[in-house]
Amino acid sequence: MQYGRSVNLQNMAHETTMKIYDFMNVQYIHNAQFAKALPIGYLETARYLADWHEYNIFSDPKLNGIGNSKLETRTRPCDLAHALSVAGQTILPSIVSGFQSIISSTDPIKFVYLAISYKPFISLFNMTKVVDVAPELAGIVNYASVVALEVRKPASGDPVLRFKFLNSTGTGTDYNFTTYAMLGSSGDTNLTDFINYVTTRSEDKA
């Protein structure tokens, strides 16, 4: 027990996994006394458990699966209760609308900014298949992380999309964006193909 809150990592229930890690992480950052008293390896173990728990809630093998849409499961004594949470499916329309504005010759909007929690990050990594080439992204992002979806116009051909990610509370080279391939491609992804993929699969019945 630390500061009125348990940091016992045994038998962590669904509803407490993220809460325990979040409490420990915030206290570790802002409370020197807590950081000194916390046993070595506890924070890393709590992060591992939280990563596994949150990824398996906010991702799904199907693009339109409930894990990519709006499911947060909380354990109760006798049943499971579902609570709405903004995730990948919810933010996709805004992303697609932004792309359409950017490629339009008559629309002045060429930059779109969306602020999200860690949950849509998890879903987007899964839905774009970025996590297939970067399994280390299957978890909670750091504070102030950024996904930049760059619409690029090659010398010839249709616009393409580039996925870049900055896990921004790291150190050194972690402050640089890293480019990841999407949807099984080896480079940039055709923008029309991406839009068709996310909109068609999202509308399909699960």
Walk me through the structure:
Residues 66-86 have low confidence and may be disordered. Strands 3, 4, 5 and 6 form a four-stranded antiparallel sheet that branches. A hairpin with a 4-residue loop joins β1 (72-75) and β2 (80-83). Helices cover 40% and strands 13% of the residues. With 206 residues, it is an alpha+beta fold.
Summarize the structure.
It is built from 7 helices and 6 strands. With 206 residues, the protein is α+β, with helices and mostly antiparallel strands.
Amount of helix: 25-40%
Overall 3D shape: elongated
H/I helix tally: 7
Which structural class should the secondary elements be placed in?
A: alpha+beta
Uncertain segments are 66-86
Question: What is the oligomeric state here?
Answer: single chain
DSSP E strands, number: 6
Output the helix-strand order.
Answer: HHHEEHHHEEEEH
How would a textbook summarize the main sheet? Answer: 4 strands, antiparallel
Beta-strand fraction estimate: 5-15%
Rg measurement, Å: 19 Å
Distance between the termini: 44 Å
Estimate the mean pLDDT confidence. Answer: 79
SSE arrangement:
Blueprint (H helix, E strand, L loop, with lengths): L13 H17 L1 H6 L4 H16 L14 E4 L4 E4 L4 H16 L14 H10 L2 H4 L12 E7 L7 E7 L11 E3 L8 E2 H13 L3
Antiparallel strand pairs: 1-2, 3-4, 4-5, 4-6
Helix pairs in contact: 1-3, 4-5, 4-7
Features:
single chain, 206 residues, alpha+beta, four-stranded antiparallel beta sheet, two-stranded antiparallel sheet, elongated
